[in-house]
Write a sequence for this structure.
């Protein structure tokens, strides 16, 4: 695939709320959630909350029904579909979980636009209860992913996942550019790993934006903030088109430098799309 790689955070990026809080609050479990929050990491807490819901008689269908009602700005699905139609390679990178994300993306008919969903694993156990695990295994009090940035939760360093995506973008001929969209503290580590030719799209006024403006020189990628779905759509599609134009402008030069015979350089039309 030749298109630009677009990596989306999920909560407060694709949907307009945090899916974990949305499920807990919508089903009336805010009090239990807040009571347990100081005592365990978020990822463990969500698995525990799924147990609380199950014990109180809430079914997985109840959870799915709530997820399908999660607020989403209609310009966001429009932007995702348009980027997909322009040939982009779309990925999710989220600290939510597989069941929540897939339920919502399928409900909006967006699942097929994404090459992969990188998130915490989930499965339904024999009792019909949703189990949520960590993306990176961790012990109580011990972080094993080894990231030193300091803003990643113990169960997931998004930067390490992005490193793998960046390696994929660099394989097979021309390096594909990467656009990253996110809002949270966990999106800061990957923003530091993007290269100069990549684009970071932080949600303005949210934690990742605050971290970036604290020390803008730490981010090599061009930074393009957005505040709502309309601005995300306009900014994202503008960058996708710009990447397409710049790639097309580079193509003849590359062909000349790398592979085109001398005779072709003298006046013969340059076929577009000969590379990749
Ligand atoms: Mg988020
Ligand atoms: Zn990290």
């Amino acid at each position: 695939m030749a298109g630009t790689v677009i990596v989306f955070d999920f909560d407060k990026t694709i949907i307009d709320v945090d899916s974990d809080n949305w499920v807990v609050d919508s089903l009336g479990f805010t009090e239990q959630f807040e009571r347990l929050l100081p005592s365990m990491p978020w990822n463990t807490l969500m698995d525990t909350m799924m147990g609380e819901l199950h014990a109180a008689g809430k079914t997985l269908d109840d959870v799915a029904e709530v997820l399908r009602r999660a607020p989403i700005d209609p310009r966001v699905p429009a932007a995702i579909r348009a980027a997909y139609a322009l040939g982009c390679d779309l990925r999710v990178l989220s600290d939510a979980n597989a069941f929540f994300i897939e339920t919502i993306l399928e409900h909006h008919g967006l699942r097929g636009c994404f090459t992969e969903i990188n998130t915490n694993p989930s499965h339904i156990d024999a009792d019909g209860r949703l189990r949520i695990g960590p993306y990176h295994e961790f012990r109580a009090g011990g972080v094993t992913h080894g990231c030193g940035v300091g803003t990643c939760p113990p169960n997931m360093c998004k930067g390490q996942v992005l490193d793998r995506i960046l390696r994929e973008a660099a394989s097979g001929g021309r390096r594909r550019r990467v656009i990253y969209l996110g809002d949270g503290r966990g999106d800061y580590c990957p923003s530091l790993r993007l290269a100069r030719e990549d684009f970071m799209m932080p949600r303005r006024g949210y934690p990742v934006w605050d971290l970036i403006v604290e020390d803008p020189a730490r981010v090599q990628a061009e930074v393009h903030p957005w505040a709502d779905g309309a601005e995300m759509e306009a900014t994202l599609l503008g960058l996708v088109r710009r990447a397409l134009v710049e790639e097309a402008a580079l193509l003849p030069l590359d062909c000349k430098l790398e592979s085109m015979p001398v005779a072709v350089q003298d006046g013969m039309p340059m076929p577009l799309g000969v590379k990749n």
About this structure: Confidence is low (pLDDT under 50) at residues 259-276. The chain has one domain: 5-242.
